[in-house]
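At your convenience, could you comment on the folded chain following this short note?
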Amino acid sequence: MSGGARVVIVHDYLTQRGGAERVALDLLRAFPGCRLVTSCWHPEGTYPGFQNYDIETLWVDKFGPLRRDPRRSFPFLAKAFEHHVIDAADLVLCSSSGWAHRVTTSAPKVVYCHNPARWLYEPRDYFPTMPKWMRTRFVAGTARLRNSDSVAARGAAIYLVNSTAVAERVRATYGIDPVVVPPARGLSPDGAQVPVRGVEPGYLLTVSRRRAYKHTNTICEAVGAMPGERLVVVGGSAPRRAQPGVTHLSALSDAQMRWLYANATGVIAVASEDFGLTPVEAQSFGVPAVVLRNGGYLDSTIENVTGVFIDGRSPQQVAAGIRALRQRSWDSNAVRLSGERYSPRSFERRIREVVTGVLA
């Protein structure tokens, strides 16, 4: 990359701990000295590593309820980004799931798209309990927002995506042919491990944010019906009722997460994921996974080497996947080696090559 180039990173909002926030941190590390622009920043809700960087927020950050849960500010976020002008930059790098790529700038814009806004383009999956009549009105009422979103997307110099599944959605949604650049795995196995009190090694593990489309309750139901199996849930939707053998945890440190991965016998991930970070993180610890044959898992999982696929997410299908996982003998070294495809060094090299090409 050209020395001294001014790169500004834009991210939707920093209020949670997820794969998109991990990518934003990796982008900051790849371009030392750059600043990050975001709509809201809730330091207690996201990764503490952001406190080491120059963070600039939009006007919505002034309101506490919006800062803690940006979903309440959805009617305002599109305009908030469109009206924010970035002029002191040679290149703007947008980490976007629907908002950041709308920012206004005269500099070339590189968009790293985690997925076209799921709530805007996939309301049936994002709002599974919404009545059909209400969803129909929602789709009609957001037509103008989809049009302006498409215009903003096509204004990018280059569009990057995290998986071939998202590449297909971007082509269908925006008519753009993107470049696939897989993200780094996020949590590295190198570092301190702190045991989680009350959890004994040998459990199954699932990690997700509290969204209905993650289908955490289905995994809990499956494991709860399997005598002798234990499941640790990190994040995930609040349980409808207590299930035998299921432990729910939240607000864990990276050191505790490393211990959970290192002491799990398998990871379960059955959401329709854009990329799916959890199985990739598990690979770096030599831990195989049960994954849905869908989305980003098709890129990251090698069948019978790093995990097993299931073709549906019913409790019975999840249970069958767990039994298949238990019946195989796994080569932990082969699993770890596969995980090196998603090392932070590989991601940094590829993203810097893209930026250098655009600047040139």
